[in-house]
Amino acid sequence: MDNNIEFKDLWRKQSISQPNIDDLQTKLKHFKKTSLRKLILTNVLLIATCFFIVFIWYYYEPQFISTKIGIVLNVAIMAIYLVVYNRLFDAYKKMDDTDSNTEYLKKLIQIKTKQKFLQSKMLSVYFIVLGIGLCLYMYEYTAMMTLFWGFFAYALIILWGGFVWLYLRPREIKKENLKIDNLIDKFQRINDQLEADL
Amino acid sequence: MEFETIYKTYWDRIFRLCMGFVNDYDVAQDLAQETFIIVWQKLDTFRNESGIGTWIFRIASNNCLRQIEKEKRFPKSELPPHITEEKQYSLEPEIKFLYKCIAELPETERIIISLELEDVKQADIAKIVGLSEANIRVKIHRIKDKLTQKFTENG
């Protein structure tokens, strides 16, 4: 039985309202503005962190090299984190929308897999460097305290670090990975639909 | 080709493709608009290797596939009730049923059958989806069988 003509007929009867092209133009302008704003914001943030580092350096005049290394480490890792995330976002945005569905799906899966790897690795590196940076930074100031308070301060930091490393970090990674795994699964399933019967 | 001409020529076809994919008027409207935003951004990179239609349908179908990612971000149940409220469109039940059936198919089949119903040549469908023409022919045949069966069951 061939219902081809009937289907095509029904298909075309769908009610459609074509939005005025002016509406679309407004959206386009808005879109342009927001992408530009995002770009500016990222750069302003990066420059602001650089200024912040210089400011602390000059204003507090740390004596110990450990304090300076601590500051640099902390700010550097924050900046790196920001850059890595932005680049990942860019890779995503730069995907070629004009590929065939098969190619497009494969690239989506690739990017998502890369994102998963980066996210879990990056998050661990971020916490390690931040922890080391903080300990180095604190040294100059704890050295001025009595031995008891110095130990107390470090004990607190290590306790907090342990909590972040053992509880917050795995939880965050698990949450993020679950989201990405779900998506990869879905994209993979769609890809399998295409590869079936080949 | 001028963007405005493309928009006027292809809006209906792109909208129907999106509607077949999601079977939700508002979401389809958004998807179609997004498609044209991408078309507008990429228009200067378009080289006449494939027809403009094939090119636009590729963008639209890829954008529909990306929709899966957004689905998770805005689960419908979390939206305020007035947004999910179904609008009253005076459509024949058969039209609604066809779109419902198509939206229930696996994602790639939705795209393939929508393109077929849009009278896109099978060779072009093959180029859009990235499969061989023979494969597309078989798939279209099977999808139509499925739809026919659903229509027969529905009376």
From TrEMBL, chain A:
Which spans are transmembrane here? Answer: 39-59, 65-85, 122-139, 145-168
What are the record keywords, sorted? Answer: Membrane, Transmembrane, Transmembrane helix
Q: Transmembrane helix: is it a keyword of this entry? A: yes
Entry protein name: Uncharacterized protein
Q: Which organism is it from?
A: Flavobacterium fryxellicola
From TrEMBL, chain B:
Q: Does the keyword Transcription apply?
A: yes
Give any single GO term for biological process. Answer: DNA-templated transcription initiation
Origin, by domain of life? Bacteria
Stored Pfam families: Sigma70_r2, Sigma70_r4_2
Q: Which GO terms describe its molecular function?
A: DNA binding; sigma factor activity
Domain RNA polymerase sigma factor 70 region 4 type: from-to ranges: 98-147
- Please tell me whether the keyword DNA-binding is annotated for this protein: yes
Give UniProt keywords alphabetically. DNA-binding, Sigma factor, Transcription, Transcription regulation
PROSITE patterns, sorted: SIGMA70_ECF
- In this chain the RNA polymerase sigma-70 region domain maps to 7-73
Matches recorded under NCBIfam families = sigma70-ECF
Family the entry assigns: Belongs to the sigma-70 factor family. ECF subfamily.
Protein name per UniProt: RNA polymerase sigma factor
What are the leading ranks of the lineage?
A: Bacteria, Pseudomonadati, Bacteroidota, Flavobacteriia, Flavobacteriales
